[in-house]
User: What shape does this take?
Amino acid sequence: PFTTTESVASSAVKVALDCNAVLCVVLTADGKSARYVSKYKPSVPVLVVTPDVDVARSTACQFGQYAHVMSGFERMPSGVLGDNGMTFKQGSTMSTAIEAARARGLVPAAGGVAVLVAESGEKGGQRLSVSFQYIPAA
Assistant: This one.
């Protein structure tokens, strides 16, 4: 049986395929959702944005993943939204992630649509969301 994380990740890959996305961005503190996204072999690069250097290092052995370590994640008190007590500032995080992807040549000059998979959770649970962002031409 599928876990909720795996279900959302597989749906994100299907959405990326259906909308001709050029990039899939996964915001993760522990790398779990990024591993599930890669399990379904998306046809676009997967940019894994994480505050953890070890998680970033582990992306080297996952299908189509490119790591970007970002310090824009904040530690929150227990019980407040955030994976393992982590949360992120989505607007600035996504802009920085897209610039990192563009610098690596993962995004075409003409721009396109990026699928964002963001994980957040409370103690004892995790929530995932899938959204889109248009990437303007360079």
